[in-house]
Amino acid sequence: MILSKPRALCRGAGFRRRPRWRPRRHRQERPPAPFERRRRRLLRRALTLGLPTVWGAVAITYKLTCPLAQQSGLGARIVTSAVFFAVGTGLVFHVRHALVRELRQVREVAGAAQNVLLRPLPPRIDGFALAAGRLSAARGALVGGDLYEVAATDHGVRVVMGDVRGHGLAALGTVAAVLGSFREAAHDEAELPQVLRRLERALDRHLRERSRAEHPAAPDGGPLAEEFVTVLLVEISRDGDVWALNCGHPWPYHLRGLARPLTGGEPLPPLGPFPLPADLAAQRCGRLLPGDALVLHTDGLEDARDGSGRFFPLQSVLSEAARVPSVAPERVIQAVYTRLLRHVGRLPSDDAALVVLRNDRGRVPRQTETGRRARTMS
């Protein structure tokens, strides 16, 4: 005779109980996402229209059915006025609440889109501490006609700073075209002049497409032929040498105790109106030692004026910020924009962008003569 083991013992020994068959229940399918969004939108619209309807119905019902509203005495008129004042106030607050909610949603979407276009820079990149700031002349906009980007590549740390003709939201398309091209060319091209040529081709392509879309009857592109972008391309090599290509942009400042402008000769014309020259070579502007900082900016800072017409003293403000032993990029950004708003007293009439990089590398190797000669020949 075979004895059956207890059920608990079988479970403990590793035996698995066969599940009982159960009929499949038909689950209620969840409505698709578009249907759900449509239902919520209709519900919000009904609430938006329903509350003013209720307020109006209350006022009409009071006027037609309440005996006090039919009287012509002073007390009755005061009560009737108070009722209609409460109804009007409720309608005004309801409309204001709906408009504020809609404006908040629009600002959130616009802020997310603008941050994707001009994304925030990391606090550190390839041995450099960096910070960036931007101030748009268009009220409510985070990004205008200024552009900047920093990329750590195999060829060194490359930075682009540019300024599109005009300001505000109308320049976002050109900013997107230039930045998108730089983010690819900075890693693909070994030489800085080739990066600039990629930016030129991207800008020309963007202007042609925009011209065909806005002026289909104008073969020469119409007013878009006057569009231009000032661009400053900077490359910081492993040994701290600063190489630049300047197309009509303000030169950067070198912070080491004081703020001194870095210059590399006569700048090229801005991108757009004139083609780049056939012989294009990067210019050596100086060297960043450990602890030194490089400040790139747009002309919206130096061209800002106060009520009496005086320009903003950017170089003196940067010199004051560079007197501390360790220049913090965030403090430089904060000091410049605080003094700028105090100087102007309102939003500036042009976009103003600022990028600060501090060399935190512990040791800068000495450049060999062979490497220096090879770089100069390139």
- Percentage of residues in helical conformation: 40-55%
Give the averaged pLDDT, no decimals: 78
**H/E topology pattern:** HHHHEEEEHHEEEEEEHHHEH
Shape summary: elongated
Q: Quick one: biggest sheet?
A: 6 strands, antiparallel
CATH superfamily of the largest domain: PPM-type phosphatase domain
Placed side by side, the strands forming the largest sheet appear as 1-2-11-10-7-8
CATH fold-level topology of the largest domain: Phosphatase 2c, domain 1
Poorly predicted regions: 1-19, 25-29, 363-378
Structural class: alpha+beta
Rg to the nearest angstrom?
33 Å
Name of the CATH first level of the largest domain: Alpha Beta
Notes on the structure:
With 378 residues, the protein is of the alpha+beta class. It has 2 domains: 47-112; 121-377, PPM-type phosphatase domain (Phosphatase 2c, domain 1, 4-Layer Sandwich). The protein is 43% helix and 18% strand. It has helices at 7-12, 33-65, 67-70, 74-117, 172-188, 192-214, 299-302, 314-321, 329-344, 369-377, and strands at 124-125, 128-135, 146-153, 156-164, 229-236, 241-247, 253-256, 258-261, 283-287, 293-297, 352-359. The longest helix has 44 residues, at 74-117. The termini are far apart. One of its GO terms (molecular function) is phosphatase activity. The chain crosses the membrane at residues 75-95. Residues 125-359 form the PPM-type phosphatase domain.
